[in-house]
């Protein structure tokens, strides 16, 4: 069975999970953090070297202030409580998204998570925080324009590979598989460049209910897909 090198997850449905139980939305996000913890260890055990999770989108700022604060609080708690464990297990943490505009304590924690784990090699956890795909592409385009103006880069030299080096995900392989929970069937500005050829699996369960079995199910669906990258398949080789 082919195991994907990189799995990316849109962790959706925390709010509906809570509502279905008559609980506040925060309870759903808390349960979502538990599901995230379990998923990171399951992915490690299943031999998935890269896991990216969508924790907070650039559009999530439009939620009520109290919910934004709750999500910021949960990120802080997650890093404070789990960083040592992730580090002990050899997990390298990377964060993608816009850092500017985040509170200094959050930025500090994100920087600390990245620097502490920079040398780890067992597995990579990429946290998309204050991330929006269009925003990422625009920031990359600005940096490219600046490099051209400075004379460090020739515009003719800008290829898809060079462009990708200016994205937050520089050096990270494209996701092979994107999973979205909660039954919604859309990408919501998640890795629009990087997921151009990804296989997509949409699952009805809400994120807090996501277990190792759901991950195994998604990997099973992935294993029987034929990936052609725009070419044709001949004797199992993408041409
Ligand atoms: C979607 O549920 C989930 C989010 C907006 C945030 C994902 C966050 C977590 C899993 C917990 C936080 C983890 C960290 C590390 C910060 P929703 O609120 O959109 O649910 P709904 O669509 O049912 O309302």
If you had to describe this structure to a student in words, what would you say it looks like?
- The protein is α/β, with parallel strands linked by helices and 239 residues long.
- The chain has a single domain (6-132, 175-223), classed as Undecaprenyl pyrophosphate synthetase.
- 43% of the residues lie in helices and 17% in strands.
- It contains seven helices and eight strands; from the N terminus they run βααβαβαβααββαββ.
- The protein has helices at 14-20, 25-45, 65-88, 104-117, 133-150, 160-165, 212-223; strands at 6-10, 50-57, 91-96, 123-131, 177-180, 199-202, 233-234, 237-238.
- The strands form two sheets. The chain has a six-stranded parallel beta sheet, sandwiched between helices. A two-stranded antiparallel ribbon has the order 7-8.
- Helix 4 (104-117) links the parallel strand 3 and strand 4.
- Helix 1 crosses helix 2 (25-45) and helix 2 packs parallel to helix 3 (65-88).
- The protein is globular.
- The two termini are 21 Å apart.
- Bound molecules: farnesyl diphosphate (FPP).
- Farnesyl diphosphate (FPP) is lined by residues 11-16, 29, 32-33, 36, 55-56, 60, 71, 74-75, 78, 182, 207.
**Heteromolecules bound:** farnesyl diphosphate
The backbone outline, from C-alpha atoms, is globular
Number of helices: 7
CATH overall fold name: Undecaprenyl pyrophosphate synthetase
Beta-strand fraction estimate: 15-25%
CATH A-level architecture: 3-Layer(aba) Sandwich
Q: What CATH first level would be assigned? A: Alpha Beta
Report strand order across the widest sheet.
Answer: 3-4-2-1-5-6
Q: Strand count, sense and closure of the main sheet? A: 6 strands, parallel
Q: What's the gyration radius in Å?
A: 18 Å
The SSE string, one letter per element, is EHHEHEHEHHEEHEE
